[in-house]
What does this fold into?
Amino acid sequence: MIEQAKSFLQEYYGFTSFRPGQEEAIQHVLQNRNTLAVMPTGGGKSLCYQIPGLTLEGTAIIISPLISLMKDQVDALSSYGIAATYINSSLSFEEQRDRIHDMKRGRYQFVYVAPERFDSSSFLSTIKQIKLSLIAFDEAHCISQWGHDFRPSYRSIVQTLYQIPNLPVIMGLTATATQEVIRDIKKLIQVTDESVVNTGFARENLSFRMIKGRDKRDFILEYLEQRPNESGIIYTATRKDADHLQNFLSKKGFSAGKYHAGMTENQRKQVQSDFVQDEITTIIATNAFGMGIDKSNVRYVIHYSMPMNIESYYQEAGRAGRDGEPGDCVLLFSGQDIHLQRFLIDQSMMGEEKKKDEYQKLQSMINYCHTHMCLQQYILDYFADPTHTEPCGKCSNCLYEGEEKDMTKEAQMV
Ligand code: ADP
Ligand code: MG
It folds into this structure.
């Protein structure tokens, strides 16, 4: 069957060879073994469930956390001539009903749904009646309460799943998982050690930079002036910061849009599509922006202040360079960032145990801002990446930029 999988790679996608981990993951699934694929962003995780979905008989159910993500995937599959659809709350009731009806008749090879869909009885009874090829959890870290993006509905599906009589092979796919999260996912979707495919998280094309003790706005002005036509994202910790910075940059004549949860859905859609179509080059956003955006030519991601943990940082910074071309990831650190993040954890509705966990993660983030080791190595060590040992040679610590600044500052204090 792997031969057939290879010919699908050529036939449908026009690719000549598999990327690291893809063939192995596909092979496990085709041997009917529940599989967890841990691969970096842009590593090609979609193919790992799509090719088995094409090879095996029946309908593949893909569980995906974001509605915008589903449409892109379905459009891509449709453009290859593959019968795919999504069923979610963005559709009218009639449309949902029609699609479920078509699904019952086995019309689709791929059906994308949000986790909440499993609460719907018509959907559940349908998937119990049809032949399923596989069930895939995209962004599988959402399943774990130790993941930074935990979705209770993701976890409750697991209980529902095991009541399905015709349960097919199950897959999990993620780019951001600590060892703890990996353990959790394995337990929940019953993956053995042999069926974990972990290619590591390293993104060789990204360069990390830590900037301290500079005026953040000045830095950004200078930075953008040097990159007039490049696409990039600037992440702020608060909506207010996003508003102010966008205002500031627009006044200076830069083509900058903003994106945060305080805007209307239409406004957000507009900005997003302007950005994806290169109508605007820079987007200033809170962490509400990004998960569903598949823009491959993002050249830089600047963090205007330190995020809450390494998982979020790496996921957001990782939106740079998805096309494999160089991506620049800059973090602008100031001591006040720490107070803000502590405050946000304090004020959150999390339980005590979860808060403790978040404080620990925050501490690792703070340590990242102060470390003298290779920044890429620090991140990969954090995720206990077994595949990576060499310093990257191009982050600000490898190039000693950060250290020099620190020393002058310390020297001044002395
Ligand atoms: P991920 O979900 O891991 O972030 P995607 O599945 O979205 O990554 O794939 C990222 C990009 O890589 C897509 O544009 C995809 O077409 C491309 N890609 C995937 N597999 C291959 C391959 N074997 N050869 C060439 N390009 C590939
Ligand atoms: Mg993906």
